[in-house]
Design goal:
The structure is a homodimer. Chain A has about 350 residues and is α+β, with helices and mostly antiparallel strands. Chain A is built from 10 helices and 12 strands.
Amino acid sequence: MQISELGEFGLIDHLTHGITPQNASTKLGVGDDCAVLSYPDRRVLVTSDMLMEGIHFDLVYTPLKHLGYKAAQVNFSDIYAMNGTPRQLVVSIAVGKRFQVEHLEDLYAGLRLACEERGVDIVGGDTCSSMTGLAISITCIGDAAPEDVVLRSGAQLNDLVCVSGNLGAAYMGLQLMEREKRVFESRPATDVEAAQPDFAGHEYLLERLLKPEARYDIVEQLREAGIRPTAMMDVSDGLSSELLHICKASGCGCRVYEERIPLDYQTALCAEEFNMNVTTCALNGGEDYELLFTVPLTDHDRVAQLKDVKVIGAITKPELGSVLVTRDGQEFPLKAQGFTAF
Amino acid sequence: MQISELGEFGLIDHLTHGITPQNASTKLGVGDDCAVLSYPDRRVLVTSDMLMEGIHFDLVYTPLKHLGYKAAQVNFSDIYAMNGTPRQLVVSIAVGKRFQVEHLEDLYAGLRLACEERGVDIVGGDTCSSMTGLAISITCIGDAAPEDVVLRSGAQLNDLVCVSGNLGAAYMGLQLMEREKRVFESRPATDVEAAQPDFAGHEYLLERLLKPEARYDIVEQLREAGIRPTAMMDVSDGLSSELLHICKASGCGCRVYEERIPLDYQTALCAEEFNMNVTTCALNGGEDYELLFTVPLTDHDRVAQLKDVKVIGAITKPELGSVLVTRDGQEFPLKAQGFTAF
């Protein structure tokens, strides 16, 4: 169906049909000039992310439902990184003429699935035309008790530096996708076999790229264990860049150990296949959406009990800089050459 | 200066340098994963708008500073339409390779000017690349006392229908700009004179298009006069479309009078020049950013005292439909053929 058949308001009605707010903080959702929210005893957390076709995603290998799901998760991840809970989502989408209603239904299916899983309300939708590619801008609103909010700036001397999950997998997934795209584009039109991508044994890497899961479970574990991180942020531009952000904001240095950086087996194998250094992928690859946080040294035993969390180093005096200690004991200053959308 | 010289984070630092939060509700602005806000006794209003190059604006005749100013005002307008006060702005911008740091400085200068005038804090900024045109997505957060929030759905039988300012001027400004663009593009390269646009006597129309002012003054006047509108929204897609929104949301009909629709002299003159029906321009032209609202009939005398507000009709039973009564007494159903971004 052509979008023009529904018109702008018909389209928004169609895409948001059946959405009923789940959160007590949502007083009014889609359909007026503004959404109306209420947060009497909480801090309100607001984050916004823009995803541009050709920069942040390639529709050749990104199913629209996955893209919608990921667009929501990327925003949830920023709320978790403040030690908060996502509650509302405002969705703006600009689409070119080649898009039909069914395409937007797929995109919304992914957005709605992610929101349903985490009990988040879609409270606003703006859909317009684009002269060219697809643009998605999402604002997520979340909340936290005032005393629970964790900033980047709270890391203290001797705090432990921790990271969840593993790093570099989404970056390797991206390399794989780009390789298969080149194979696909350079095949003779009659070669059906070359059109079948070869992803066997790499499924996890593709999942990390196409269907990331923001780490709500880590925030929950920390809460249950009674651990309040001193600083936290999500790893979207690569570990190296994020460590430098925390050190700059907290006025400290850090020392992290290469051998402690968590890697998945598939990531390591794939890096070898591409003749890349896997540590570099973990340090500078983007889109991991893991949580990087610091905790007081006295929480060491409790952190060690957490599932899927690894201590990778410690906070130092600022004059010592931000340093990676390699497997053979050499020291290198961390550089923010990470993933960049420029 | 090339954007790549600063990098993404350097650029955001550069553009947001010197911004210090003015509102008590802003606990943390730019620089972390989220902005942190506090609204203990208020409703939180959230609106989001996306502006795409080639759809919502044409850089041939839109100075970037004006574009930034307008992008902020468009969002303020949605907050005023809820009878609220804008407090925070989150800005996402995607730019193509032809953009330099100075271009973004201009855009931000407009955004910052609009925010300074209204005491709004820029609390978040995301800047990334675009494969093609410029895309701006802005989220505005505002507040109102719970009892002050005005929705579209509250219009009651016999309420007066009121509109601020005048309508159709921005639409005529757009026609002028498009005409001059065609003249400019079709001139011989050597014809310097043809490159000088002819806007004499039309300055007000261009200002309405390029530098709209969201009607905070109307919201203030209503407050001071002790008038609480029963329904309100801003006129961004044309009066006709907005009246239908209010009638649909409120489950009523309306009767508005052509002779009561406020028009500026320049709008009428320019419509004649273009051989257009000025009422059609006022009903279906977009981007007026005036306020359309309904008040109880008993507020008639107080509304009549308001500066720059006109009563254009009344709310009727739903079965009577939404009707325009022409100067010669004929009745036509209102149609939402208004300005559309599709």
